[in-house]
Hints:
InterPro entries: CHASE8 (IPR033417), CheY-like_superfamily (IPR011006), HAMP_dom (IPR003660), HATPase_C_sf (IPR036890), HATPase_dom (IPR003594), His_kinase_dom (IPR005467), HisK_dim/P_dom (IPR003661), HisK_dim/P_sf (IPR036097)
Catalytic activity: ATP + protein L-histidine = ADP + protein N-phospho-L-histidine
Low-confidence stretches: 519-527, 654-677, 804-827
Transmembrane segments: 173-195
CATH class of the largest domain: Alpha Beta
CATH superfamily of the largest domain: PAS domain
Number of strands: 23
Largest sheet: 7 strands, mixed
Bound molecules: adenosine-5'-diphosphate
Main location: membrane
Enzyme class: transferase
CATH topology of the largest domain: Beta-Lactamase
Structural class: alpha/beta
Number of domains: 5
Amino acid sequence: MQTLERSSLNRKLTSMCLQAAASALLVVYVAFALATVTGERREERQELEALAAVLAQGGLDAVQFNDRRLATQLLAALEARRGLASAVLYDRKGQPFAAWHATGQDAADKVEALGGLDPDTVAAAADAGSRPWLPVLRVYRVLGAPLDADGRALPPVGAVMIESDLVPLWLDIARALGVMAVALAAALLTAFVLVRRLRRSISDPIGKLINAAQKVSASQNYTLRIAHNRNDELGVLIDSFNNMLAQIEGRGAALTHHRDELERQVGVRTEQLEKAKNAAEAASRAKSAFLATMSHEIRTPMNGVLGMTEMLLGTELTETQRNYTRLVKQSGEHLLVIINDILDFSKIEAGKLTVEYINFNLWDLLDDIHTVYTPQAEAKNIPLHFDIANDIPVAICGDPNRLRQIMANLLGNAVKFTDQGRILAKVRIASEDNQAVMLRFEVHDTGIGISRDARSRIFEAFSQADDSTTRKYGGTGLGLAISKQLVELMGGSIGVENALTQGSVFWFTVAFDKRRVDPDAPGDHQHTIDGLRVLLVDESETSRIGLERHLATWRVECDAAESADEALERLDEAARAGRPYDAAILDMELSHTSGLLLAAQIKSEAATRATRLVLLSPERLAADPVQRREAGVAYQLIKPARAADLFACLATPPRGQVAPAPRFMPPRPLHLDANRPRTRRVLLAEDNPVNIEVARAMLESLDLQVDCARNGEDALQAVRTNSYDAVLMDCQMPVMDGFAATAAIRREEREAGRGRVLPIIAITANALQGDREACLAAGMDDYLSKPFSQQEIAAVIGRWMALPLAATVHHDDEPPRLPPASVEVIQRDVINRVALDKIRALSRDRGDALVQKVIAAYVDDTPQQLRTLRSAIDGLDTGNVRRIAHTLKSASANVGAEALAALCKELEHLGRADTTEGADAILTDMEQEFQAVRHSLTAILEKET
Ligand code: ADP
């Protein structure tokens, strides 16, 4: 049954039909057999009955008259009938009277007697001879006597028995059944053939349906239909299937239509969004432009105010006038802080707040901040302490100006909101790995404190702890919001907690990269610690050699002592000889004593007390800050000390001996150098009359002759007719702006085949990120942001032309209060003077002349080299590119033009890699760099002659 269920539809149909037909035929066959058997037997009995009746008629006389011969003749006549086995005539007593048997007389003689002639005995004998399993059939008949005179029945006279042999009858029946079986088998075969034919009319359409369903599901093609011309149930099934496909197709078409409609709508919306986005971008650009303009508009007059007060303070004033002027300057600076805050806030709003990534000296910066805020705190009679962990790196990369801004805000607030107690700034390492260090800065105050619910608010823009703050302390509520943004931009976080007893603790963390100092590039450093005398106290020769190598590359004069005693001796000797050591680097682990003890000894001697002490210890906790302070150790570094940190320790004045707060130093009258060949002439292109006066005064105090142009066109005209050493170009001017004027000047230079000769320095009040890039891209060489101080303008101009020595004198008197970052960014040394010093050292007597000669040769030859390089690049001649770049690289390195040498190296690499891809851009950079190099070299030459 199970196999049938699993078999195919065709087999199922065949087997079902055959099973039905076979069952029907079987029933017919059985019925036929039964009917034949019973019919034949009944017929045989009737015939025997009839024969017995005939025999009884004839036998009656023979028995009555005891005529045996007649009886025997009568029985022998039965031989003619086929199939009779025997016949017997019985007399009145039931004894055989005559008998006949088909097989012979013997058998006839053995006939048994009948028990009697009463009906029961005869019936019993007949019954016994007619049992169905017997191969014979017996029939008895009583021979009746005639009725008596009264019509009463007389007792029987005798009886007759006829026996028939049934075997031939059975054989006939078997034959008939055999024929019947053959006929039925033929009928079954015919049915099978017919079923095979007819089943196709059912299985074929079902097969078609299956195929169609599979095709549709595979191809998703709902247009398919099955053709047919039947009107039975299968026809209905196929029609339903076709209908279903039609419905799906219809639904698919509707969906496609909806999708198309949706796409169209999305397209329309996207277009609208695009328009909205463009509008928003335009608005944002407009906002940025507005910011730039506003910044310019506000900072320009501030430049006038601050510049003029600075100039005014440099003139002869009465004490009262000086006080007033100082107040004006302070207010102006305060106003500038607020303006900068608002600008920063606008930048946050416009998503344009960015941070820089530059190298700086963290300790310098912290000292600087300490220096600036100490007077403010002192003015309120509050001590301000800096507690800086000794293990913080000194030389790091990040944005010093923004760090200063955040610290300034927190310290400013601390000073503002504290009336008594103390302020403490702490710096600790929060986490550190090989590349980066996360610093945690804290500012503790004992001021008014902040309520718990105000704490979450104060970092939002324009929010203050409570309304009375503004009335009592002033402020905009922007500082902390800006600080928060800055700290987050620098990968840190900011928060506030309550101090234990009184006041609050503001903290923030900032991640910085650690700076790697390349000992082979001492150019950055030598001007600051060059010539320092240092004593090295270390018992290990390996450590001494390593340290000596560093110190030598920084041009530090270094002696070594192998023990504490030797160190004390040497220090004493040097002090006695009037050449005390500036610093001593002490190893913590010395035999019989310790670096700390040695330090205390050195500091206890008046002669050696001035020597700055740097302690090198194997671990951070070797000496705690109190011990170090008591022993007079300025810095402790962990061994092996980072070169950058060691350098910074030697270069930074020890904490606690902070320089006085910056005071304005009026520009000194300049002394013209008698040997100077001519007065330097600069063009100042600026439209604002106050700014013109400020800048003119500053430039003239640098001993420069100043011409003024009120707009870009005037400037262009002036450059055409006069020869200038430099142009200071304001970016935003009427008629023609600074960018257009610069572009025109550069174009004319190119047309005249002169190359880029005139240094143009942009002056702009736009304090937005990207201004510097925009100016340099417009063809300007440098960048000066308004408001600028005299030192700043001197520093920038000094990079592009020789300034009289007197003009730089202020640097010695008064350290410029430039943030270290600006110093690094703006004062990029085009020339590493060490290289020139090396050339000079080649000849004892004629060193200077040699330097001049080398520089002249370099300046004369390089333009030709650059031109050849250009044609080699144009002609894809990589071999020549490599060769010339290589030659120029060494020539540039010889004169200390390191940046140019690095560019040459890049180009040389390209040449070696057999490609000129990107070479154009490098060459353009090289040409620009060469202009700067040429100016610097010329300036150096002129300074020296
Ligand atoms: P401003 O100081 O210009 O109001 P800030 O954003 O710097 O703006 O500070 C927001 C507010 O946070 C201040 O107005 C003040 O209420 C609160 N605040 C900041 N620093 C301190 C502090 N050290 N002690 C108490 N309150 C402070």
